[in-house]
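Translate sequence into structure tokens.
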Amino acid sequence: MEGTILRVDYSDNRVTVDADLPTDGRLTLETVQFHNPSYGRSTTYTIHGIDRDADGFCVIDLGPQRTVLGMGTLDVDPISPTEMSSLTPHEYANGLTRQGVGFFQGKILVSDDWSHQTRITSLTSSAQSAELEVESTAGFQAGDAFYYLDIAADDGMTIYNWATFERGQDGEIQVTATDDATLKMDGETRYYLWSRGGAVGDLGDPDFDGSGRVDFGDFLLFAAAYGLTSADPDFEIRFDLNEDDAVNFADFILFAGHYGQEKAA
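Result follows.
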């Protein structure tokens, strides 16, 4: 799942994105990776929940994980249009080798009143201070406090889906996944739908007319129900194969995967 950050609530550690993410709990405690071509490295957080704001955009709750890396204070006016120094050292900017790891490269630096910001190109730290190279020091002066932001609007976002398949002693396949899963094995294709708790269950029966075969008769019944939601009086749960309270394209994909198959006896 890919998307872009629209805005970040740095006080509550909530990130609004343009991606259409599931809000049913399947991604809770999964990881989200944020990235930007300017960054020396991407950054990863644990998802504590996903909901939607008043405009319908998805909001990722990062829980207690801070999206602000730290704070600094300019001890003197900027040395040049692209150089400044901070009274606050950052030891982990140097890494174990003391040669620097590029941890802050590309991160946004913003004044404490949020009136000025710039992007860091490099940062080195000693025991007493931190030396920064930035895109521009305009607006910053001695005595100013500022924040290092780990993520910002326009950063990219990636969440990786995963699935595990395990055959039990009874021969049944046990599936755990973050989304619907498809298993092709022994010449057979099986579809498993995600359900709360990470386990996924078998596809609902697409043989709607009970003929023993998924065929054109079933398609006609499905087509008549297509587009209905649980709010419609004619809605029937049997056509909602993925149980998301709507008969939509996701159900059609699942139905099409079984089209032409004989129903097991």
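Note: The chain has three domains: 2-66, 68-149, 163-258.
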